[in-house]
Amino acid sequence: MSILRKQRMPRDARERGAAAVEFALILPILVLLVFGIVEFSIAYNHKQGLHAAAREGARVAALPQTTSASVQDRVRSALQGVLPASDIASASITVTPATSQPCDGVAPGTHVVVTVSAPDDVDIPFFTQTVTLTGRGEFLCE
Fold first, then answer.
1. Measured CA distances, 30 to 26, 36, 58, 125 (Å)
2. pLDDT at 1 over 80
3. Is the entire prediction scored with pTM above 0.85?
4. H/E segment holding residue 17
5. Is-contact 58 137, C-beta < 8 A?
6. Among 97, 60, 98, 102, which residue's Cα sits nearest to residue 77?
């Protein structure tokens, strides 16, 4: 009776090749997902840094004796360590009201707004794109 019974391979051994093929099909999607999560996290960190630098610039701009040039210097120094040096150099900093001293001689309750925009590269395998991130800070003039 044991001679007539057909010898079968264990089920695990038969499906080992199928599992390898399935893994090979899913691996690129998994890699894209992991790299996407990492790149999104880095971009979000840069955006938070831009918001912090803009708030720092707006805090300084709220003083009546502060000039727009000193606000821009403060924002650029706050971006050190947040963005690469090349992105800091190309960052666009806007101070509103757009005068040489934003809070000098303005009406009480006037807001000063500092906006910082900078490029950021999103590098995911098979997908590379440059996006513009923006941070904004607003304070009342003193």
1. 6, 10, 42, 11
2. no
3. no
4. helix 11-61
5. yes
6. 60
Specify if 57 maps to a domain: yes
CA 98, chain centre distance (Å): 27
Residues 6+ apart with CB under 8 A from 57: 71, 72, 74, 75, 78, 93, 95, 114, 116, 137
The count of structural domains within the chain is 1
In tens, the pLDDT along 26-77 reads 999 999 999 999 999 999 999 999 999 999 999 999 998 999 999 999 999 9
Sign, CA torsion 90/95/101/103: negative
Tokens coding 89:
């150099």
Phi then psi for residue 72, to 5 deg, are -65, -40
Residue 1 lies in a domain: no
Q: Can you name the residues that pair with 130 across neighbouring β-strands?
A: 121
In what helix (H) or strand (E) does residue 95 lie, and over which residues does it extend?
Answer: strand 92-96
Sheet of 127-140: strand order equals 92-96, 111-124, 127-140
Structural domain containing residue 72: 14-140
